[in-house]
Design goal:
The chain contains 3 helices and no strands. It is an all-alpha fold. The chain has a single domain, classed as Orthogonal Bundle (Non-ribosomal Peptide Synthetase Peptidyl Carrier Protein, Chain A). The N and C termini lie close together (10 Å). 19% of the residues are buried.
C-alpha cells in the first residue's frame, strides 16, 4: 500500500477543520510554528487525534508542537513510511 506524502496543505487542513484555524491564517511557510500562527497545545492534540484516526498512529509529542511545521511534516512522513513498510 503506497501512501501519499503528508504535506503542509494537509496539516493546514487539519488545523482549519479540527483546531479552528481561521482560513485567512493558513500559511504556506513551513518554517512557522503553532505559536507563530496563534495556536496552542490543543491544536497539536487535534493533529495527533486526526493522525491516529486517519492513519492509525499517534505522533509522539517530543516537543514537536514547538518545532517548525517542516519537522512535524517530516515526522508524519517518517511514520507513514514505517506503517507502509510493516
Amino acid at each position: 500500500m503506497s501512501t501519499q506524502p503528508f504535506r503542509l496543505e494537509d496539516l493546514m487542513d487539519i488545523l482549519e477543520h479540527k483546531a479552528g484555524l481561521p482560513m485567512p491564517d493558513r500559511t504556506s511557510d513551513a518554517n512557522l510554528t503553532f505559536t507563530d500562527i496563534g495556536l496552542d497545545s490543543l491544536a497539536f492534540l487535534a493533529v495527533q487525534a486526526t493522525l491516529e484516526t486517519r492513519y492509525g498512529f499517534e505522533l509522539p509529542d517530543e516537543g514537536l508542537q514547538h518545532r517548525p511545521f517542516t519537522d512535524i511534516i517530516a515526522a508524519v512522513n517518517a511514520r507513514l513510511q514505517e506503517v507502509d513498510v510493516a
